[in-house]
Amino acid sequence: MTPLMLTMQAFGPFAGTESIDFTALGKSPLFLINGPTGAGKSSILDALCFALYGQTTGNERDPTQMRCDQADAALLTEVSLDFHLRGADYRVRRVPQQERPKARGEGTTTHNAEAQLWRLKAGGEVETCLVARKVNDATAELQTLIGLDANQFRQVMVLPQGKFRELLIADSKEREKIFSQLFQTQIFQRIEEQLRNQANQIERDVKEHRQHISGILAGGELENEAALDQELESLKPQVEDARQQFETAQQQRRKAEIQRDEALALQHQFEARDTLAADKARHLGQHDEIESSKERLAQSAHAQALQAPKSALDQAQQAVTTAQAEQQTAEAALTAQRTNAQQAKQAFETTRQRQSELPALRERHRQLGEFIQKGQQLSELQTHFQTAQAAWQQADSALKRDEAQLDVIRQQGEAIGVKLERLQAELQQLASAPAELNRHNNLLTQRQELDELARQGRELTAQQQQTADALERRKIEAAQADRNATEQEMRWHQGQAALLALTLEQDAPCPVCGSLAHPAPAVNNANVITQAQVEAARSAQDQARHALHVAERHYQQLTQQVSYNTQQVQRLNQQLGEWASQALKALQNTCDELNRQVARQTSVEREVQQQIAARDALRREWGVLDKQLKAQRPAVEKAKEDALRLESQRDQLSQSLPENARDPVAMRQTLTELERQITHIEQDWESAQLALSNSQTQLARAEEQRRGANERIERSEQSLQQARTEWQAALQTSPFSGEAAFQASQLDAAQRQALTHQVEAYQRRLAELEGALQNYQTQLADKTPPDLTALTTLTETAQTAEHTQLEAWRKLDGRLATLHGIRQKLATAHTAQAELEAQYQLWGTLSEVANGRTGHRISLQRFVLGVLLDDVLIQASERLVRMSRGRYQLVRREDPSKGNKASGLELDVADTYTSKNRSVATLSGGESFMAALSLALGLSDVVQAYAGGIQLDTLFIDEGFGSLDQDALDQAIAMLSELQMGGRMIGVISHVSELKEQMPIRIEVRASRHGSSVAVKGA
């Protein structure tokens, strides 16, 4: 940022309007701001900082305190600054809040603070208004443009009196803010935030994954993974037994289906044989039609042989017809082209005569142009005169209107004040409405939750009763299944004795006791129990026990839910208090009333803001009108003078024009008509030449086309005679009696193909029917039709049994598959959780390192800024070594700060006399100034070298040189001169007389009883 023009009005010690043209100091100047104490040297820097940020350089004086006491009461305090930044010029104007006299009556009124920001053109004219009035908007826009806030600006571009040590002794956190703006290192801060967000997200994912594992177990109605393993072990043998029973039923069903399908196939063979016999009889009925088709195909073959000479004759006739049509077309075209050529020649002669009139028309065109130009000047003078006269009348009317408007504004302001007091009183009454609404909304939510819990409690109680009844039924069924299984097993053993008795023989030993006599063998009966029935009873027993276990677990779950519901109801009753017993509608009505109060509060707040805005608008309008009234009278006089001057110029120009040339509209119409005539003649001349050339070319082309058509007619007639002779000879040698018989016997390709396909299809189908019929008769010679009804019934019975076994197997296998799926999901979830924990080890470590939570607590951005600070310190130390005669160097502190304080950017000074590093705060006043100046100059060098978004091409230094000895002062001046030659503007405020001798370019500030003034010297 480079200042171009600074204008101060009634600001600080400057009672009038003082302007400093920095461009008059030269390119990249090194200049001195001097003057007596209290004259206002520092106020120049205050004005610069106030124009940009609305604050003074030391930030010790409020902007409202910067008005000059010696200034005229009617003169407004304001500061305006033109500056150059990154190839563009800008202008900012600021007015602090101040009291000014009322436009009418006695007393003062408050003029609110305002600010405007414009982008300028190359000549200093306004190009675009960036901020129209708002102070905060202007400050924010300027911070964005410059890249520094007010504090950072004071630390790196302006070293105020008594503040030059701020950047030198700033802590790591403050220096990080400044350097991140200067070097644009926010990307490293975004990396820190991204790593921190990534680590936090992974940590949240780990917690969600643990909840996901619990949800997987809950979805399978499992308490833990041990219960999953236990149920898997018990289910595996049950599934295997059910599968074997299903496979047995499946084999029986397949056997029955095979028998049914074989019988069905035999029945279809009998039906197919009868169908083929009927199809053959119907097919033989097409014999006569097929014979007729064969005869037509033979005649068509004879006609096909004569097709070539017939086609040649037709083509020859068509060629003669085409040639005759082309000859007629060529004759008509030739006649038309002869007519066109004659017309083009006549038009060419007519246009050549008109073309000779062009010189006179062009001379008339030049004279009219001169008259029109003077007429335009006369019209513009008349317009300017009327505008000036209207402005004069309008200004006079506005003066009277504005005076009346001031009275109206005062009345409106009084009315707004009364209404504002009433609204503020009502707003005070409604202040507690939002808190009460929030509390009652929470109560309403809890009351609705209580009603919902009561409804759920009733449902759970009913479900608990139903589950208890079902549990009793399951107990009875399980007991019955146990008794049935025991009874079936006993009966099976009894049946085995009867079967063994059937194997006993007389005089043969018993396989059980070895006796040869068998006095009372076991008697077999019809109800012998098989092993399959015993297994079925055992399976039913297991199913009944499993159903009992499920019912007991369901009853326990409902009991727990009822208990939890009761606890929640008690908790809500305690929280609701008296609202728990009152009707829900009453609580809703209270919430509705509070909603209306909150809405009214919002409405009143909005209305208060509107009234305040209206009051402020009236105050601004009052100020504008007051200013207008003061400026309107000289404006009226000036408008009158402008009107008289323009009237005189108009009369003089009017006398220099002929009477018939004073109407610019008529003259412009005449000029337009004359231009149209000239253009029309030129275009007609070019068109006539082109048309004559084209018509001659087209006539020659038409004659050539007619000759070609005559030759084609002769050739086509000779070909036609030859084709007729060949056709007659071919027809006489054919079996046809004449051309009519030939035409009647012709068939096109589609007809021939259809007839051929019909004959072939008939013969092929007849052969297929006879072969298939013979095959069926051979196969069915020794067979009879089957009994399909009995076989179908047997198959359906087997299918029902298979379906029953399949459902039992599927139920058990489905549960087994569900448990396996849960185990797989758990394995996947554990793997994913391990991966997330591994990721967290990586990203969490990176986040902690990047955000400075380990070791020396240096973040990534602060580490990068530390490297940049090292570059700055190299440049600063070169200058500090020279000014301190080789004693001091600036270094970055390597030891971390104590506690949790951020570190990494602290500064120490290396003292070569003691070979130790110590804090920069231990330097004396003069040493601190040398170190601060060196740091500012080094920072400026490095920022420019890195070519970042911030441009430090200006530096202002307020005092501090008086603390230097002569040698250090000479070194400081030499360094400032070197910096100036690098393209920077350097301004120094000092009382040191040696500086005045070494800096011929100066801004002198002079003080007087009526206020200070400024003057540029030596530029």
TrEMBL record:
Entry-linked InterPro entries: P-loop_NTPase, Rad50/SbcC_AAA
Pfam families: AAA_23, SbcC_Walker_B
Entry GO MF terms: ATP hydrolysis activity
Keyword Plastid part of the UniProt annotation: no
Organism: Vreelandella sulfidaeris
UniProt biased composition (Basic and acidic residues): 282-297
GO biological process: double-strand break repair
Protein name per its UniProtKB record: SMC family ATPase
Segments of this protein annotated with the region Disordered: 282-304
Keywords in alphabetical order: Coiled coil
The keyword Coiled coil belongs to this UniProt entry's keyword annotation: yes
Domain of life, source organism: Bacteria
Signal sequence, start to end: none
Coiled coil start-end: 188-266, 555-604, 692-726, 752-779
Domain Rad50/SbcC-type AAA: 6-245
